[in-house]
Structure formats: C-alpha cells, structure tokens
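Hey, sorry to bother you again with one of my protein questions. I've been puzzling over a protein and I'd love to understand its fold better. Take your time with it, there's no hurry, and the full record follows here:
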Amino acid sequence: MYTLYLIPSACSLAIQVMLRELNQPFTLVDQQNTENFIALNPANKVPALVENGNVYTEGAAIMLYLLRTHSSKMWPSSLDLQQQIIEDLMFANASMHPAYGRLFFASQAIADEPARQLFLEEAARQINQLWQVVSLRLQQREHKGRFLGGGIPSAADIFLAVYARWGAHFFVDIQIPKNVQQMLDGVMARPSFKAALLSEQSLA
C-alpha cells in the first residue's frame, strides 16, 4: 500500500487522482501535520510517495513510476505514444507549473501593491500563452479524443486540471481556450478527481 504525503489543493492532488485511476490502495498524510517531514524528503516538498520503505519524490517522476508499474490504458505499449505522454507531462511540470507558481510568489513576496499587480498580470500573460499551446496540441489530436491522452485523460491532463484550479485565487485575467476548458471539465468530472477533492477536505 502507498502512503501519499500531500498539501490540500497542491500538485500532490494529481498523484492521488492517478492512484485512484489505477485502483491502487493508499493512505493520505497531510505534510503540514507531519513532524520532521524534511527527513523523508530533504527538499521539503510534496508530493512524496512511500511504498515498502521506498520514498518517491517529484510529481512528474512519481507519475511515470506509477504508470510504468501498474498496467493501464494510460500507458500504451507504443514507444511513440509513450514519448508523447512524457513530453506532455514535462510540459505540464516544467512549463505550466512554474508559470502558476509565479502567481503565488508575487502574492507572498512583493509587498508593493502596484508592483505586485504588474508582476501578476505578466505572469498571467505567460500562462495564457501556455494554455494556447495546450489548445494547439488538442487540435492536432482532436481525431483521437478530447484529452491530450486521447479518449482518456493522461497524466498531463490531470496535472493541468489541478493547476487550472489555482487561477481562481488571483485577480488576473487567465484565459483558457474552449477546447482546453472542455478537457479540464472532463478531467474534473471524473469520479477519481471528485473523490480526491473530498478526501482532501476530510483532512482539514
């Protein structure tokens, strides 16, 4: 059984969703209530996933571990499709995640309100450009399904759905194209996503 260390609404939510999609048993632990979490993960970041004494860190790496360990339609046998999944996942992790992270940084680190708002608006502009990239990828694959993963969500779709929810916390204009919003709605409507949100609420 897995133990997932998380912070509610953080990117660790995506790992919980994936565990549910793969029908894997797990327990949840709120990192904020964990003593000496840094001994488990020296980076002091979530998610951290523990199994049989092994500790796995970094969200994208954990996703790939789960996909490669547990057979599912979300990890096809084709090397070309696997590469596509990895590229989408790295885009979500290395491009979209840091872009949203700049919103949190500005809110916490910039005291001057006009300067903070300018930073937030520039960060939102960059986020909007990235959502256009997602839209283009969906258009290129629209014959295969509504998700980046085709007929079912991929790991990247799940991460992107988590990030998209963060925008509501900021007074900026984040514009998500229609086809992307349909993809995000499809991910968030899945039982795995709904159950993950409820389980996080129960930790509060």
User: Anything to note?
Assistant: The chain has a mean pLDDT of 95. The chain has two domains: 2-72+191-203, 79-188. Helices lie at 12-21, 37-40, 59-69, 79-109, 113-140, 155-166, 178-188, 191-203.
